């Protein structure tokens, strides 16, 4: 068979194939050369540390003395560590508080700002502003706002006769407060991505649907939502990953307290690694967080893969 | 085409070498125009200005050395320092604390100063032996005394006057676990609600308190419950380097008393305001009139003087407990990093920091009681000139004292205590449960 094909190629064509192959090789080489800087950075600063952490999770090391190999001891210990399980549950609780609220709010905002209206562009900027601010600075400012005695929230509640709680020192309120601060901060960014997605949906689809006598609600569920899936997919995946990695707001506002109520995995890793100097154990915890995020992201990919349309034409 | 590839390869190589440079942060401090730059780390911003001023003089005397001060608050200081030690990029000279000293000396990150002391014939007999001895291990000297401190009762003169009290009324106060004693009675007089009613008076509303009698705040216990523990006969450990015994009744009672001051007697500022690390420092709390008095360390004098200037504050002794008087006593040292690239210059800086000239300048500024015994009067006189009698701190140091616990579990104790006791002060955890929890967790960290 192969012989036949080879013989069947005219000499000119043979050269053309060679040329095409050579050109392709050049293109590939060029692509790699262009990729090289970011690929090197990616391997050096993102992939290599993951292997480093994986290796470190098999050691007991206080950062100063010599590390000693302990096999899977760190993993055995964390499986039996109630604080770790609490941190996992706290993290999931935070994600559950954060992601739905943030996504629904951002979608509503995007739908509102997608209409032509006076001041729409200004509002867009206003909603994105919190996302551009530093989380640590915001955390400090929000701690003041939620201060039980002098904070704006309880002063306002006091005006309508409500005795506001001690937001950040009450175990029941601390996590919702942290989540609301982050919802406030990241909704604008999510809104921006969704707005871009909305604007990519062709108007003709709505016009045709309107002629067919559909209601606005029907159009939202049958056109907007399905065609917004690529954007929704993107924000859900990236925001979920980001939420699992929540650290700065917790660090500034509660330090994991009160009584571990906001001790999320990333803060627990920090505490074990940089306050108690158990870097092996902290690395094992980091691998747990990595696995958790990997699982959730994989599930999201599987769910969206079947249902997402990327081409509107 | 190939030229393009070559170009991008060069660009990639350039980027990589740039990236490689990024890691060498430790070298940044090396040399600027021939001068060596030393890094000097500390955690107290109240002390920084007079120290910095004296260091500028050191730089004038040593044209080849520049000193860069690195300031981080207590909570961040130890995380940062230990991470830097692990990364072999620690500051050349830094403040050391007795609770971290054991680990540091064991890991060999501190320079042994003994040969240098011998070589330069430094007279170490001028330091209080109580301070200097703790830093020697097997003939090696890992630090020289910077200062010492005890705890006192800082008060606002205005708040005292408004309550019809004089400073003399704060002398000889006593407390007990049963009814709080004269200490609580006095604090009640200093606690006022929004209608001007004082605690204990009929119609007093503990939910709307404008000024509390007392403010307390301590990440480890040093400025609050350890003192009551000592006055109640509690021992935090069975022996130095031993096991923690905070679950003993005398300790639990002391913890209970601090909780009672807030939740039962309503005379102490609520933990929602004061809990570390986010609460405002106590000079602020007293300065803005939220509390009449505060238990704090002698190193806070300058801060109180800023918040309540021109005779606005004074210092009284801590009350006596069932067992008697007592205060936590502690001192810091100046230490040299074993991995410093400039051991000679670092030793020069250390010699300056422990010199009479430097400690005198810092004492004159009223920053801290000096490590050099003969300079104690300089400090006391500096405050006397401002109308503040600080000799109570010295009397406390000469009386019954308790040092920081000597333990290898300092990291665990410090991290856990912060969280556990914050909950106790908020009323979310009982003193008994808290004592058991901290004892178990700190003991688990002892090998």
TrEMBL record, chain A:
Q: Which residues cross the membrane?
A: 34-59, 92-113, 125-145, 186-206, 227-247, 281-304
| Source taxon at top rank | Bacteria
Q: Where is the ABC transmembrane type-1 domain?
A: 88-300
Major site of localization recorded for this protein: membrane
Q: Where in the cell is it found?
A: Cell membrane
Alphabetically list the UniProt keywords: Cell membrane, Membrane, Transmembrane, Transmembrane helix, Transport
Q: Does the keyword NADP apply?
A: no
Q: Describe its membrane topology.
A: Multi-pass membrane protein
- According to its UniProt record, which protein family does this protein belong to? Belongs to the binding-protein-dependent transport system permease family.
Its name, as the record gives it, is: Sugar ABC transporter, permease protein
Q: Which organism is it from?
A: Microbispora siamensis
From TrEMBL, chain B:
Subcellular compartments: Cell envelope
**InterPro entries in UniProt:** Bact_solute-bd_prot1 (IPR050490), SBP (IPR006059)
Q: Which Pfam families match?
A: SBP_bac_8
Query: Which residues constitute the signal peptide according to the record?
Result: 1-22
Gene3D superfamilies linked = Periplasmic binding protein-like II (3.40.190.10)
Presence of the UniProt keyword Transport in the record: yes
Keywords from the UniProt entry: Signal, Transport
Cross-referenced SUPFAM superfamilies: Periplasmic binding protein-like II (SSF53850)
Q: Which family does it belong to?
A: Belongs to the bacterial solute-binding protein 1 family.
List the protein's name.
Sugar ABC transporter substrate-binding protein
């Amino acid at each position: 068979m192969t012989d036949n094909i080879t013989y069947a190629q005219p000499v000119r064509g043979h050269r053309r194939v060679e040329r095409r192959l050579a050109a392709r090789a050049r293109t590939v080489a060029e692509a790699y050369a262009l990729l090289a800087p970011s690929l090197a950075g990616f391997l050096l600063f993102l992939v290599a540390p993951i292997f480093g952490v994986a290796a470190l999770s098999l050691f007991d090391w206080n950062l100063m003395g010599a590390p000693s190999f302990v096999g899977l001891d760190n993993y055995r210990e964390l499986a039996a560590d109630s604080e770790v399980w609490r941190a996992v549950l706290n993290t999931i609780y935070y994600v559950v508080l954060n992601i739905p609220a943030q996504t629904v709010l951002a979608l509503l905002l995007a739908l509102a700002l997608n209409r032509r209206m006076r001041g729409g562009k200004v509002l867009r900027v206003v909603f994105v502003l919190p996302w551009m601010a530093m989380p640590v600075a915001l955390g400090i400012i929000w701690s003041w706002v939620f201060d039980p005695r002098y904070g704006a929230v309880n002063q306002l509640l006091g005006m309508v006769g409500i005795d506001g709680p001690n937001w950040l020192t009450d175990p029941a309120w601390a996590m919702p407060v942290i989540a609301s601060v982050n919802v406030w901060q990241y909704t604008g960014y999510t809104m921006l991505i969704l707005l871009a997605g909305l604007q990519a949906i062709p108007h003709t689809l709505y016009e045709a649907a309107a002629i067919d006598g559909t209601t606005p609600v029907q159009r939202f569920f049958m056109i907007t939502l399905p065609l917004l899936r690529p954007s929704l997919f993107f924000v859900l995946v990236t925001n979920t990953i980001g939420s699992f990695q929540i650290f700065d707001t917790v660090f500034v506002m509660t330090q994991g307290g009160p009584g571990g109520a906001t001790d999320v995995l990333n803060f627990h890793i920090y505490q074990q690694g940089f306050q108690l100097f158990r870097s092996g154990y902290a690395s094992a915890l980091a691998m747990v967080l990595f696995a958790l995020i990997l699982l959730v992201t994989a599930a999201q990919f599987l769910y969206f893969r079947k249902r997402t349309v990327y081409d509107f034409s | 085409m190939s030229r393009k590839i070559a170009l991008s390869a060069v660009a990639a190589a350039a980027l990589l070498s740039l990236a490689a440079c990024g890691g060498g942060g430790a070298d940044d401090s090396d040399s600027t125009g021939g001068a060596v730059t030393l890094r000097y780390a500390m955690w107290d911003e109240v002390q920084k200005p007079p120290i910095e001023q004296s260091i500028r003089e050191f730089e004038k005397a040593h044209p080849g050395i520049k000193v860069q001060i690195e300031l981080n608050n207590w909570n961040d200081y130890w995380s940062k320092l230990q991470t830097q030690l692990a990364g072999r990029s620690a500051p050349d000279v830094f403040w050391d604390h007795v609770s971290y000293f054991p680990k540091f000396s064991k890991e060999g990150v501190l320079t042994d100063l003994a040969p240098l002391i011998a070589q330069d014939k430094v007279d170490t007999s001028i330091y209080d032996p109580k301070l200097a001895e703790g830093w020697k291990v097997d003939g090696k000297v890992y630090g020289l005394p910077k200062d010492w401190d005890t705890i006192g009762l800082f008060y606002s003169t205005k708040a005292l006057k408004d309550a019809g009290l004089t400073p003399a009324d704060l002398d000889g106060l006593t407390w007990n676990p049963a009814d709080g004693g004269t200490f609580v009675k006095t604090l009640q007089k200093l606690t006022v609600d929004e209608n001007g009613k004082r605690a204990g008076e009929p119609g007093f509303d503990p939910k709307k308190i404008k000024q509390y009698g007392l403010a307390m705040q301590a990440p480890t216990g040093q400025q609050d419950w350890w003192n009551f523990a000592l006055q109640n006969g509690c021992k935090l450990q069975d022996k130095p380097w031993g096991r923690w015994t905070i679950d003993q009744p005398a300790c639990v009672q002391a913890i209970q008393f601090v909780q009672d001051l807030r939740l039962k007697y309503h005379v102490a500022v609520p933990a929602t305001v004061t809990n570390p690390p986010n609460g405002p420092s106590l000079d602020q709390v007293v300065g803005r009139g939220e509390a009449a008095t505060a238990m704090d360390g002698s190193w806070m004098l300058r801060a109180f003087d800023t918040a309540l200037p021109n005779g606005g504050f004074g210092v009284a002794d801590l009350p006596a407990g069932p067992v008697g008087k007592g205060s936590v006593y502690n001192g810091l040292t100046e230490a040299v990093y074993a991995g410093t690239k400039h051991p000679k210059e670092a030793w020069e800086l250390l010699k300056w920091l422990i010199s009479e000239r430097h400690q005198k300048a810092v004492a004159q500024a009223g920053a801290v009681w000096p490590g050099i015994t003969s300079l104690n009067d300089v400090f006391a006189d500096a405050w006397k000139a401002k109308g503040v009698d600080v000799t109570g701190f010295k009397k406390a140091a000469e009386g019954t004292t308790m040092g920081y616990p000597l333990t290898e579990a300092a990291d665990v104790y410090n991290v856990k205590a912060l969280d556990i006791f914050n909950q106790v002060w908020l009323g979310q955890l009982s003193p008994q449960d808290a004592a058991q929890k901290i004892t178990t967790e700190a003991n688990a960290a002892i090998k």
